[in-house]
Protein: FAD-dependent oxidoreductase
Organism: Terasakiispira papahanaumokuakeensis
Amino acid sequence: QTRQHTQVAIIGAGPSGSVAGALLKRAGIDVTVLERSRFPRFSIGESLLPQSMEMLEEAGLLEAIEQAGFQYKNGAAFRCADRYCEFDFREKSSAGPGTTFQVQRANFDQLLADAAAQQGVPVHFEHTVNAIEFNNEQAELEISTPESAYTLTADFILDASGYGRVLPRLLDLEQPSPLPHRSALFTHIEDRITDPTYDRNKILISVHPTMPDIWYWLIPFSNGRCSLGVVGLDSQLELDQSQHHDPADSTVLQSWVAQEPKLKALLEQAQYDHPVQTIRGYSCGVSQLAGDRFALLGNAGEFLDPVFSSGVTIALKSASLAAHALIRRYQGETVDWATAYTVPLMQGVNTFRTYVEAWYDGRFQDVIFYPDPEPTIKAHISSILAGYAWDKSNPYVVESERRLNTLATLCRETV
Ligand code: FAD
């Protein structure tokens, strides 16, 4: 067994790992990224939010994404039976980018990892972190590759392992999410949409006509294909864990699509030519986001819900906050991880949480589908949907629960 040392070890080369790696390397910190799989590999999480463009730019990774030919995205569209509304993110109240992309994550994640590597970040594929020990001076990571095993010592670990949740498992930090267990059934389709009113520049979220807590995503890509998924409680989707799910069989997903007449009409000609996958009970939390020698990034920490496509944005925000805290640490400052990382990260996560909970109990759906919104209020809501959940100049961020309740009541009374 060989032993090696790095200042910061990053577990996982998803978006949060690559962005953290690039930011640290740019600050002259010696960093090593360890990735279990071989890229490209499939990942879910394809509709980005404009706020995430700022973190990519800061890490010097935006150009690679802008040049890749991904589907341009300028907003979100929502449909529930005959109610339809659009949010154009360029009309948001927050400063910052108003457009972004919808991406096949296999390509996107590979582009980010390659661009980080071009900046000098060592990214090691098929290096799996199996165990970690902490002592007073450093952390020791036990790593295996297809050929061998070795030990890497590090001053600090950023866990960007997503659903691998390496440190939450090893340090027993896992906490159940307060959100109920929901699942998703999804695939990629050749969409063959001919409806001239369909806007490929927006994600389309459709609500089930009779069960408003069940919803569908339709995320167009730039190559005539779409990501399509349905989300509901485990019990509603009846994804029986004991039964074998045949990925080649799209009939269950198609039967859900058939229950939403507008979506069914839109996808009349669609070709279901890709495996159908499921993710169950995806929401998760942790008891602690950082310690003396570690911080949890992105999905390795907290994951809420896919309804507002906030996952990658939160992952990149966490990478940026953690990298800046580490840069200060290597400049000789004493960093308090609660104030430098956990509190600011959770402020945005909790803003999203307020709107996610209100989506499922109906309050936020009433706001979204309100036919005649006041433009300033719509701009504030657009900002949140565009990912600017950390913008404290937005009253719907700082006082999210109170403002949302007042607005929802008003919308209900005046419809
Ligand atoms: P990941 O992208 O998951 O990367 C983690 C990496 O760590 C992986 O490459 C993995 O191989 C590696 N790894 C794991 N274990 C180890 C180990 N032991 N050693 C070494 N490497 C390891 N987000 C959006 O922004 N938009 C969406 O539209 C969206 N839709 C979603 C739909 C569903 C149904 C779900 C469940 C989530 C969705 N998300 C969406 C969330 C999104 O998938 C995640 O938030 C995002 O991928 C998190 O990025 P990450 O960098 O934290 O981790």
About this structure: Residues 337-360 form the longest helix (24 residues). The chain is about 35% helix and 25% strand. The pocket of flavin-adenine dinucleotide is lined by residues 11-17, 34-37, 43-48, 128-129, 160-164, 166, 184, 279, 282, 297-300, 303, 306, 309, 311-313, 315 (CB under 6 Å).
